[in-house]
TrEMBL record, chain A:
<dbReference type="GO" id="GO:0005737">
    <property type="term" value="C:cytoplasm"/>
</dbReference>
<feature type="domain" description="NIF system FeS cluster assembly NifU N-terminal">
    <location>
        <begin position="27"/>
        <end position="150"/>
    </location>
</feature>
<dbReference type="Pfam" id="PF01592">
    <property type="entry name" value="NifU_N"/>
</dbReference>
<dbReference type="GO" id="GO:0005506">
    <property type="term" value="F:iron ion binding"/>
</dbReference>
<dbReference type="GO" id="GO:0051536">
    <property type="term" value="F:iron-sulfur cluster binding"/>
</dbReference>
<dbReference type="InterPro" id="IPR002871">
    <property type="entry name" value="NIF_FeS_clus_asmbl_NifU_N"/>
</dbReference>
<dbReference type="InterPro" id="IPR011339">
    <property type="entry name" value="ISCU"/>
</dbReference>
<protein>
    <submittedName>
        <fullName>Iron-sulfur cluster assembly enzyme ISCU, mitochondrial</fullName>
    </submittedName>
</protein>
<dbReference type="GO" id="GO:0016226">
    <property type="term" value="P:iron-sulfur cluster assembly"/>
</dbReference>
TrEMBL record, chain B:
<dbReference type="InterPro" id="IPR036869">
    <property type="entry name" value="J_dom_sf"/>
</dbReference>
<dbReference type="GO" id="GO:0001671">
    <property type="term" value="F:ATPase activator activity"/>
</dbReference>
<keyword id="KW-0143">Chaperone</keyword>
<dbReference type="InterPro" id="IPR001623">
    <property type="entry name" value="DnaJ_domain"/>
</dbReference>
<dbReference type="GO" id="GO:0044571">
    <property type="term" value="P:[2Fe-2S] cluster assembly"/>
</dbReference>
<dbReference type="GO" id="GO:0051259">
    <property type="term" value="P:protein complex oligomerization"/>
</dbReference>
<dbReference type="InterPro" id="IPR036386">
    <property type="entry name" value="HscB_C_sf"/>
</dbReference>
<dbReference type="GO" id="GO:0005739">
    <property type="term" value="C:mitochondrion"/>
</dbReference>
<dbReference type="InterPro" id="IPR004640">
    <property type="entry name" value="HscB"/>
</dbReference>
């Protein structure tokens, strides 16, 4: 540590650059960015009719992921929140997923593929299942929202 | 050759001077002196360290019965005994071949030991012996269980700076792990592999919670 203190600041900056080039770095910078500054962390009211909640888990790694979407009357996703307890790739995948679904319509969001997430984050093959988990979470949230909407319309027709 | 030997496989018949002997154990020849030896680590004639047969499982290697309930103290004792004989440090004066075998066997023993030591890894390894692997992408877990785990994790993060709460959660979680271990043992005992698989998946989640708590305890400077 003493060495760091006596190094001129510019050299420290340089060393940061060279350190990030070392092969011991496992995560892609984009993953690290999402991990350090996750977007849209939090919860929405799961009892709200316009909110769809997806809760999924990866049994092999013991990861759990919650993804929620809030949809307006025009079928557009106006808000998305997530909470993930798992590895960096799982957190980054779900963080990116919430970013992507925001502003999309429900139908557009359904088309989102895990391969897109994996490609954007340059996930290695052993971490592909994290992006699949994010895709499953979106699908689960969308289907939860649809079920709520269907029961809402059937309630109305009953009346 | 006064003895005809049919080697290599289990349940082989060995014809020796006209007598038929039946051995269920694995036989192979010593790489150094060609003497047929039982699947021990050392040749009984020239005492050279032997390569391990490929079909040995971790329980065989450590020398404990293939049982989920095998006492940890037994595993530790056997492991220490083995490494006191097999460790590469013991082979500094030996030939390159033996040094190489020692490195390989010793690292295999380490792997077997670390796998069998923890109930979760031991259980998952036993599933592997039953040809069962927990798939990575199967996400259809019990919704209620996932909810519980989610809430537990959220609660822990909420009180991450509260030493008392963290210690309380640790205690709670340990009790859950002990309970799960007992249930898994029962499932293996009843040969209910489906149930064992389900319980081991749950255990994985609680082990993750345990690691998380450990991390928080370290940050808070809790000495155990």
């Amino acid at each position: 540590m003493a060495l760091w203190r006596i190094l001129p600041p510019k050299l420290i900056e340089l060393s940061k650059y060279t350190l990030s080039k070392t092969p011991c770095l496992y995560y892609h910078p984009k993953v690290l960015d999402h991990y350090d500054n996750p977007r849209n962390v939090g919860s929405l009211d799961k009892n709200d009719e316009s909110v769809g909640t997806g809760l999924v888990g990866a049994p092999a790694c013991g990861d759990v992921m919650k993804l929620q979407i809030k949809v307006d009357d025009n079928g557009k996703i106006i808000d998305a929140k997530f909470k993930t307890f798992g590895c960096g790739s799982a957190i980054a995948s779900s963080s990116l997923a919430t970013e992507w679904v925001k502003g999309k319509t429900v139908d557009e969001a359904l088309k989102l593929k895990n391969t897109d997430i994996a490609k954007e984050l340059s996930l290695p093959p052993v971490k592909l299942h994290c992006s699949m988990l994010a895709e499953d979470a979106i699908k689960a949230a969308l289907s939860d929202y649809r079920i709520k909407q269907q029961s809402k319309t059937s309630d109305k027709s009953d009346k | 050759m006064h003895a005809r030997l049919f080697l290599k496989h289990k349940n082989i018949l060995i014809f020796q001077k006209g007598n038929i002997l039946h051995f269920s154990d694995c036989f192979s020849k010593c790489w150094k002196c060609n003497y047929p030896h039982k699947s021990n680590f050392f040749c009984s004639k020239c005492n050279a360290l032997q390569k391990l047969p490929k079909d040995l499982n971790y329980f065989d290697i450590i020398g404990v019965s293939k049982d989920f309930d095998v006492p940890v103290t037994d595993i530790q004792k056997k492991y220490r005994q083995l490494q006191s004989l097999l460790h590469p440090d013991k082979f500094g004066q030996k030939s390159e071949v033996e040094k190489e075998i020692s490195r390989n066997v010793s690292s295999l023993v380490n792997k077997a030991y670390t796998t069998l030591l923890h109930p979760l890894d031991r259980g998952l390894y036993m599933l592997k012996l039953y040809n069962i692997c927990i798939p990575e992408e199967k996400t259809s877990l019990d919704h209620e269980f996932l909810m519980k785990i989610m809430e537990k994790n959220e609660e822990i993060e909420k009180y991450s700076e509260n030493v008392e709460k963290i210690l309380e959660f640790t205690k709670e979680n340990r009790i859950t792990l002990v309970r799960l271990t007992k249930q898994i043992s029962q499932a293996f005992h009843n040969k209910d592999i489906d149930q064992a698989t389900k319980l081991l998946i749950k255990m994985k989640y609680y082990v993750n919670v345990d690691n998380k708590l450990k991390n928080f305890r370290q940050i808070l400077g809790v000495i155990e």
